[in-house]
Specification:
Layout (H helix, E strand, L loop, with lengths): L4 E4 L9 H11 L3 E7 L11 H8 L5 E7 L7 H7 L3 E5 L6 H10 L3 E6 L17 E5 L13 H15 L5 E5 L7 H7 L3 E4 L1 H4 L3 H11 L3
Parallel strand pairs: 1-8, 2-3, 3-4, 4-5, 5-6, 6-7, 7-8
Helix pairs in contact: 1-8, 2-3
Bound molecules: D-xylitol-5-phosphate and zinc ion.
């Protein structure tokens, strides 16, 4: 099993041919499928919901990494579990009761992630570290694919990596937004374990993009 993981974001795929796109990244060796759910309230855009995930679940064996950009996601956790999520990530800023929300994800037997927006400090995680499997550091403001990577994320990743190491916590760091073949090296060096990429995977030769990303990962 690889240490580092590539999670292509289907937000950048052509939804008309979603199935083909997913097969292509799966066959090329991508590890997770990053699935961006947007509600038009927590973030400006609306993307898609559980029924779409349910349809693609029948055709794919990949780990479904569901990123909920949704107000009070606690309301929908069962739906996403039933649709086929393996990992559910919620935004700390979108949960009135983050601890309860994370506990519910774990009760459903899923892996739990907590995401922080660019301006949200790491201290938000202080009393939740022991309950989670992954932290998702946003390197853009959530809501759209194709934005530029915010360099402030690099410092945050480094500091988080240090905290996790010091406390001997087995938590993955996922980074999402504006990652390309030109900056992925820095992101990995800062301490990322899981790399999300939408535009940079689905624009152009998908198979080649996946292989190029994976060959940027340390061996
Ligand atoms: C942003 C989403 C990201 C996005 C990444 O709100 O959470 O997952 O799809 O797309 P790129 O890689 O194009 O920034
Ligand atoms: Zn995402």
């Amino acid at each position: 099993i690889d240490m580092y993981k590539l999670a292509p974001s289907i937000l950048a795929a052509d939804f008309w041919r979603l199935g083909e796109y997913i097969k292509e990244v799966e066959e090329a060796g991508a590890d997770y499928l990053h699935i961006d759910v947007m509600d038009g309230a927590y973030v400006p855009s609306i993307s898609f919901g559980a029924p779409v995930i349910k349809s693609i679940r029948k055709e794919s064996k990949m780990v479904f990494d569901v990123h909920l950009m949704v107000e009070e996601p606690i309301r929908y956790l069962e739906d996403f579990k039933e649709a086929g999520a393996d990992i559910i990530t919620v935004h700390a800023e979108a949960c009135r009761h983050l601890h309860r929300t994370v506990a519910k994800i774990k009760e459903l037997g899923l892996k739990a992630g907590v995401s922080l927006n660019p301006s949200t400090p790491l201290v938000e995680l202080e009393y939740i570290y022991q309950d989670i499997d992954m932290v998702l550091i946003m390197s853009v403001n959530p809501g759209f694919g194709g934005q530029s990577f915010l360099p402030l994320a690099l410092d945050k990743i480094k500091t988080l990596k240090e905290i996790l190491k010091q406390r001997q916590l087995n938590i993955d760091i996922e980074v999402d937004g504006g990652i390309t073949l030109s900056n992925v090296g820095e992101v990995l060096k800062a301490g990322a374990d899981v790399i999300v990429a939408g535009t940079a995977v689905f624009n152009g030769d998908i198979k080649k993009n996946v292989i190029d990303f994976k060959s940027a990962f340390p061996k």
